[in-house]
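Each field is listed here:
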Amino acid sequence: MSNLYVTEPATNGKVVVETTAGDIEIELWGRECPKAVRNFIALSMEGYYDGVIFHRLVPGFIIQTGDPTGTGTGGDSFYGEPFADEIHGRLKFNRRGLVGMANRSQRNTNTSQWFITLDKAEELTGRHTMFGQVMGNTIYNVVDMGQLEIDAEERPLHPPRIKTIRIIENPFPDIVPRITAAERRAQQQARLDAKRDLEQREKRAKAKKNTGLLSFGEAEEIPEEAITVKKKGITRTDLVDPADVPKKPVESYVELPESLKGLANGKKEERKAVDLKAIRAKHEKEKMGDEIARQAEIRRMEDSLRALKKRQGNDSDSDSDSSTRRKRRKGPSYLEQELSKYAAGRGRAAARSANKRGRRDEEEDLLLQLGEFTKRVAAMGEESPREEAPEEPQADKSQEEGEMITGDTEGLETDDDVGWMKHQLKFIVDEKELTRRAEDEYAVIDPRAKARQLAQEHSKEKEGQRRGTRTVADVGRRK
């Protein structure tokens, strides 16, 4: 499997698709598929995929999303029109977790819909643009989504939904979104509110009162002008001239010319621009309101701090006038307590650092003493004579210097003899013992020598047999 990854080029983009079934981490090939990746990144920045469902699921094949309508027939590209396919020779649908663009069953018809493979799909190679791959353990979220229940039209019964798409690494920092995600959400909410109001008005218009029911006092009286009875006209065709009967008007439909169509479309675009400007102005006003509230909160906090400082200064200046002012707090203030804690903490830290330095100094002193001792022993070894001096003069010398020390150390023997450093431990070398031990420990076995010995014995036996045969033959000839 590793040889498949080696042939694929390196990625240069990364996004995280947050869904109701878990996150999906996708890395993008922005150099190989710039149009598809730029379209995907731009639509994600605009919040185009927020709230979109996975509308199609083919178990063991793909799971598809990207249509805001949820039908599989909608979706627009960032460029305003379908864009071309981007087929790369090193990008193939040879495993699960690969991300590609869905088209309209024709070449170069990519818009906003995309899919993730659930298994190897070689039939898609060369027909669809492959622009990303799922990375890490998030592939198991895709596998779980591929096991959902579906209906006869390959639609999940409980489809997962995209919450939002976070852009971790953008390979195209020059992208300028046409609309922000907040503005798009505001537009969608405005459309939903308008649709809801229209439905309510239609319901109220369709509601009719049943005037055939009897009214019992408290019921609302229906005005007479509201009751209208339509009667069917009675006519006799044999008494009426057909030329005098007006014909039923036929509704005519005239197709508008291109100039008027363009004007109507221009007005529509103008209304959309006005709505967008109104939404942006509303957002700016909200931002300004938040900024003003924040500045007011900052000023209020500054005023309270100044008042607190002033009150503390008045308390320190008017200690004598304790009858008119409240008593000062006994003991250290809260600030002094915090400062003392900080100083104590610094003291403990300094003590710990001092202890560390002390231990380090002790180790260095110990190493220095050990080095000096080693030098002294080496110097004594070089100065030591071949023959050791007799021990009796040493004893006499120690007796002359005194064996006991008076004072507090009375009864303790002093030992200031450093001659032990010159002593060397030597043993008599027994070469015979070493040779004997070597002979006992090492037994040389040469299989070739054994073979030669057997061959010699065999040749001797044959030689003996030949000699015996020759002797018997000689004896026979003599007879």
